[in-house]
């Protein structure tokens, strides 16, 4: 499989107008006030991990690049906007000749990421950097949500293959298409979504629906026909009528009468309803007794990480899982709450950090142009902590590093014998893309390697250890001074 | 606003390949077994209303029509499929010349719909009718989910306008674009999604983000600039620093110093964080005291129907709501579980009903080619019940109608003084579209009228009355006979 295959298709839609209207009213405002070329810095980050989990898996950067590379307002877009009677002709003229000139940095896909880390940072004329807010959030929020959920589900499956089966219950077409992409990044082996295979070279799989069985007068005839057509990879759906009394006996009969004479072995049976633990144990023993110890049992009935863990704990005999609606919508927590906030402005020669204060403490932002440094232990190669620093800070790896909790600052930790890695990479320089996305399967492999560098305590589902994300002393001091400045101003 | 406006853009993507792979393996199988022209009937229906609600709002038919009207495999699609080494050349040739020839019936958008009702029925060659499964489910599941959630949220707002603000947290681009469309059908007044306005003529709205305020040295300067640019529809975001100590005083100062001299009134203030009840009451009294009784208070902080009902019950002073992530993802229950099942085949001259049995009772299907009849009371014009009947059954409205519970058949009810309406309409005849979708705003109005025909007991959030969906005596008897036939076959 080759990502550069000529079979690949791209999303040809122009999504330039997929923008919250307020970005246009603000753009018109910046333009009117002569601020359009004011250089601003924005960070995209999230505040909380879904499902009370310990980590997230970054995803969506390739689609973000595609969007940023294709920003263009058509004449009809301009005419539509003119009819809103909200925008000046000068602003509409600016949009007509819009050219993206920002610098953009992002954490590459597949990296484990944590709350308050700038996953994407945009530097450029405020009117542009503001404009891309909706699509940055929409793209990264969606795919990171699904990649994270998929990683949890695949962890629960404990090495057994997981197939993504959710297209029909996804939230819209892209929910299916890009959701399947993110599910593979999170660890799924394959997808039912043919278009996602076509677009991203991720393996699409599938066998039969209940309708195939219903179409024939008897279940046996339906199975027989299938085995005749697909003798090499025969998987039968055995729960149309009754798994134990009808499905398994008919399957075994077909394996005996059709496959055996051809010298073929059956690939599997699939169960899509009923009591998974009971049915799979019973099926396993019936298959084994008939000499089909190598016939897989596939399960696909409203699964998620908790049900998978439960049925495996109960001794269910399952070889692979098809996971649908609860994966493709991240049902247990279907929102990834990424936000996009102004963090700095450029003066004549310096960077002026900006902060957003809030009555909700957790909504207070980290000011300034920053980066994320991941700190690894030199002996175990495990990730020990992330440190958010100002962009120009340097860490001398030969010296001990003091980390401290940004709220309870007396909680301090001295790190020695470590090395560091900058997480963000530049993806756009002055509006030109300077990064080539790996293939989806390469990203999946990368995600596997990088999550293996986290301690099991961070990866577990129940009460995971909170991975340390600390601020450098410089950044912490800067934040404190800005907080005091603003609260002093209206308390005085 | 005119739905035929030349500003409208269409989704130009070819979504033919957005299909579960098993529909292709089954298609190849039908082809191989000479069954491709076997005429089959499939029903799309759902089994349970999200959020323990009492009703759903049908949505997505316009997009379904768009998909069915544009089915086409490109040469590259065929080449991609050939490389799967799964399909016969004859089947690939069939796909290359694929022409949709099915009949399709659907419940028009905006209708209240209930469990087990065939929302979409497809009749045609089994290979085709099977192929469209994924897109029918994906399209109707998504938009019906969001329209239903929006209707709940708008009901809670009790007449106050609700704006859809969720694009950034949607599950993919279409989650935002078509989610906004469905939200309007469910009752929202406007959306932040500019592209949805462009595509469907639904009003896009928006003012400022926190970044506008942060960009200026002081909140007052930021508000002043905004009021100068937008004196006619000035809405200020007042929670960047501190609502009561900074936001409201600065807003009032700007209303006094900028708008008043121009003879303009402020439109509103928006609060996006903090204690809604406390803040809005305090804001209201401060605005009133300053002479701005007509200035609206807009709230937009992680709202849903329950929070809206709560804060209004607590006396919060709110004039309109912006609702984001919990609407656009239907967060409380983000899956609409529609399924698509084979219900009949055509013999030489008759229709052979088909059933799917299951260990889960609720997964047993209603067999046969059917229709939905809604029964209205002649005096109140309220909907009394829906009756699922075989397609050729006729109800004589001059005679009393006996309804009975399909499980507890002794629960019977005699209806008199009623009239009936068939819910499904034909949308495709022999592959040609025979239905013109109303505009989104027309559908919204229709949904409002039709839901008003339900009793308040069906519409309420907590323990709603279960709307009656019964089977005709003929359909019930048919189902029983098929159930007995199959269970007898493997019990004997």
TrEMBL record, chains A, B:
Signal peptide: none annotated. Transmembrane segments: none annotated. Transiently phosphorylated on a His residue during the reaction cycle. Phosphorylation strongly increases the affinity for substrates and increases the rate of nicotinate D-ribonucleotide production. Dephosphorylation regenerates the low-affinity form of the enzyme, leading to product release. Its EC number is 6.3.4.21. It comes from the Bacteria. GO terms for cellular component: cytosol. Residues 17-141 form the Nicotinate phosphoribosyltransferase N-terminal domain. It is an enzyme of class 6 (ligase). It catalyses: 5-phospho-alpha-D-ribose 1-diphosphate + nicotinate + ATP + H2O = nicotinate beta-D-ribonucleotide + ADP + phosphate + diphosphate. Pathway: Cofactor biosynthesis; NAD(+) biosynthesis; nicotinate D-ribonucleotide from nicotinate: step 1/1. Residues 370-479 form the Nicotinate phosphoribosyltransferase C-terminal domain. GO terms for biological process: NAD+ biosynthetic process via the salvage pathway. InterPro entries: Aldolase_TIM (IPR013785), NAPRTase_C (IPR041619), NAPRTase_N (IPR040727), Nic_PRibTrfase-Fam (IPR007229), Nic_PRibTrfase_pncB (IPR006405), Nicotinate_pribotase-like_C (IPR036068). Keywords: Glycosyltransferase, Ligase, Phosphoprotein, Pyridine nucleotide biosynthesis, Transferase. One of its GO terms (molecular function) is nicotinate phosphoribosyltransferase activity. PANTHER family: NICOTINATE PHOSPHORIBOSYLTRANSFERASE (PTHR11098:SF1). Catalyzes the first step in the biosynthesis of NAD from nicotinic acid, the ATP-dependent synthesis of beta-nicotinate D-ribonucleotide from nicotinate and 5-phospho-D-ribose 1-phosphate. Belongs to the NAPRTase family. This is Nicotinate phosphoribosyltransferase. The gene is pncB.
């Amino acid at each position: 499989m080759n990502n550069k295959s000529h079979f690949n298709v791209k999303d040809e839609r122009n999504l330039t107008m997929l923008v919250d209207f307020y970005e246009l009213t603000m753009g018109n405002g910046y333009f009117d006030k002569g601020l359009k070329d004011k250089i601003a810095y924005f960070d995209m980050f999230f505040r909380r991990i879904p499902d009370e989990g310990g980590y997230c898996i970054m995803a969506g950067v390739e689609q973000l690049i595609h969007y940023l590379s294709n920003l263009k307002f058509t004449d009809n877009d301009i005419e539509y906007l003119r009819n809103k009677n909200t925008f000046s002709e000068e602003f509409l003229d600016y949009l007509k000749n819009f050219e993206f000139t920002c610098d953009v940095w992002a954490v590459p896909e597949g990296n484990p990421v944590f709350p308050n880390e700038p996953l994407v940072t945009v530097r450029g004329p405020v009117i542009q950097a503001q404009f891309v807010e909706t699509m940055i959030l929409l793209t990264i929020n969606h795919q990171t949500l699904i990649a994270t959920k998929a990683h949890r589900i695949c962890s629960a499956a404990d090495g057994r293959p997981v197939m993504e089966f959710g297209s029909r219950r996804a939230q819209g077409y892209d929910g299916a298409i890009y959701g399947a992409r993110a599910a593979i990044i999170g660890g799924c082996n394959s997808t039912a979504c043919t278009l996602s295979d076509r677009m991203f070279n991720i393996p699409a799989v599938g066998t039969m629906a209940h309708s195939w069985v219903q179409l024939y007068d008897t279940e046996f005839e339906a199975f027989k026909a299938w085995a005749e057509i697909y003798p090499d990879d025969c998987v039968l759906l055995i729960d149309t009528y009754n798994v134990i009394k009808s499905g398994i006996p008919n399957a075994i009969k077909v394996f005996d009468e059709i496959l055996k004479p051809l010298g073929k072995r059956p690939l599997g049976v699939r169960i899509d309803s009923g009591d998974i633990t009971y049915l799979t144990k019973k099926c396993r023993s019936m298959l084994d007794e008939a000499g089909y110890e190598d016939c897989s049992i596939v399960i696909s009935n409203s699964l998620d990480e908790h049900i998978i863990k439960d049925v495996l704990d109960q001794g269910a005999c399952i070889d692979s899982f098809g996971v649908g609606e609860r994966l493709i919508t991240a049902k247990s927590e279907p929102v990834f709450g990424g936000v996009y906030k102004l963090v700095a402005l450029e003066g004549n020669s310096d960077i002026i950090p900006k902060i957003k204060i809030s009555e909700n403490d957790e909504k207070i932002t980290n000011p300034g142009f920053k980066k994320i440094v991941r700190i690894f232990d030199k002996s175990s190669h495990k990730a020990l902590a992330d440190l958010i620093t100002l962009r120009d800070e340097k860490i001398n790896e030969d010296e001990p590093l003091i980390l401290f909790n940004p709220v309870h600052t007396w909680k301090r930790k001295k790190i020695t014998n470590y090395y560091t890695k900058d997480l963000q990479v530049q993806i756009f320089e002055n509006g030109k893309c300077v990064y080539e996305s790996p293939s989806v399967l390469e990203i999946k492999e990368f995600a596997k390697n990088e999550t293996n560098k986290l301690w099991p305590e961070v990866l577990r589902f129940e009460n995971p250890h909170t991975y340390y994300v600390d601020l450098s002393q410089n950044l912490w001091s800067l934040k404190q001074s800005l907080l005091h400045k603003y609260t002093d101003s209206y308390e005085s």
